Structure formats: C-alpha cells, structure tokens
Model the fold of this input.
Amino acid sequence: MRETGFGASPFLRECGFSRGCGTIAGVTLTIHIDDSAPPYEQVRAQISEQARSGVLPVGYRLPTVRGLAESLGLAANTVAKAYRALEGDGVIETRGRNGTYIAAAGSAAERELASAAQAYVERARRLGLDEDAALVAVRDALRAAYGG
Done:
C-alpha cells in the first residue's frame, strides 16, 4: 500500500485484480479492466452513487484530475471526461483553480426543473392556452407519472 497526499485528504492506493483502485478519505473507487463499462463511466458512476448516498458529502473537495488519474492508473483525459459528465449531471461543480467539489444535492435538478417549467409556460402561451388550462395539463401529467 502506497500513500500519497491530496490537500488535507490522504489518498491510499491498494490494487488487486483491478486496473486501479484507491481510497480517498474512506471513499473507495475501483476500476475493473474486465468490466464492459469504460473506465470513465466507472469513475462517473461510482462518484455519482457515493454523492447521492451521502458517502461523499456536499462540499467535499475531490482530488485533481491528474492526481486521481495517477492514483487509479488511468489517463488524465479519462478522469477529465468523467468529471465533465458529473458536472453536466450537476453532481459536482468546478470552482476554477479552487478545485472540484460535490455540488449541493438537488441544486442542479432544481435549476433544470425551473428551466423546463419556463419552457413549458412559454410553449403554452404560444399555443394560446390560459393559465388554468396549462395547470390542468401539468396536473394530469403529474397524476399519470406519479400514479396519483
């Protein structure tokens, strides 16, 4: 086991039958070479799941792209691709040179929902629907989707 440092978080590397694996302050990422999912997707899925479950708390600072790539035995572009996908999903946020952090849960989802609602309202107005008709359509769609 080899220990290297990432800011205040120790990063331990332990590898067995996988291509790369590591523990970041108690959070483990493992890349399996025999998995059908590409390595960037494995990184994306594991960080996403750990953020969703609370293992990685909101505001947790992730390692640099280069540092995580080195520790997992991956190319920096592979980790960068995973980080871009996570940022697009709203799981992480990059604060320039200040680092990459786990985003507030729901903030991206709330922004996306507000954007979709705005687009719906604009479309309803273009179709000539009044507010009541637009709300009825939304309620019907919600009942259909949520079984209520």
Summary: DSSP finds five helices and seven strands in the chain. The mean pLDDT is 81. The first strand starts at residue 2 and ends at 6.
